[in-house]
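We were asked to recover a plausible sequence for a given structure. The inputs and outputs are reproduced exactly as logged, with field labels preserved.

PROBLEM: sequence recovery
POSITIONS: 133
GIVEN STRUCTURE:
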């Protein structure tokens, strides 16, 4: 079954895709933000329990452990950017197509009778037939 290519159906699909993109960006951003803040607070708490907050930045905490402060700052900044810029990013990534003529796709002018100058398609909502059909 082919997809409906009417301008209303296309606009609806674009809005749905934008909404999915928007909330996906916000979810990823929120997860990164929470992870980054967790890493920073964890390292800060380690420094406080050792009696020297500066030591928390320099201390090596084991084999295979990432540096929590650097990872926390990076995750926090990227997460905050994704949360705040999710809407412009989704609008940029998924552009609304030009409505144009549903028959030939021409996006130029229409004649005085509301017909496409390329193919003669009636562009108003009351008629959806070609004049030669």
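RECOVERED SEQUENCE:
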């Amino acid at each position: 079954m082919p997809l409906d290519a009417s301008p209303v159906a296309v606009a609806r699909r674009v809005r749905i895709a934008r909404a999915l993109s928007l909330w996906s960006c916000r979810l990823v951003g929120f997860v990164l933000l929470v992870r980054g803040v967790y890493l920073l607070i964890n390292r800060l708490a380690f420094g406080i329990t050792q009696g020297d907050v500066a030591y928390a930045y320099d201390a090596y905490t084991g084999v295979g452990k990432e540096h929590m402060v650097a990872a926390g700052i990076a995750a926090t900044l990227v997460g905050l950017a994704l949360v705040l810029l999710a809407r412009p990013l989704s609008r940029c990534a998924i552009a609304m197509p030009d409505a144009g003529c549903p028959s030939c796709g021409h996006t130029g002018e229409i004649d005085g009778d509301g017909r496409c100058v390329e193919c003669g398609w009636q562009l108003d909502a009351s008629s959806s037939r070609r004049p030669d059909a």
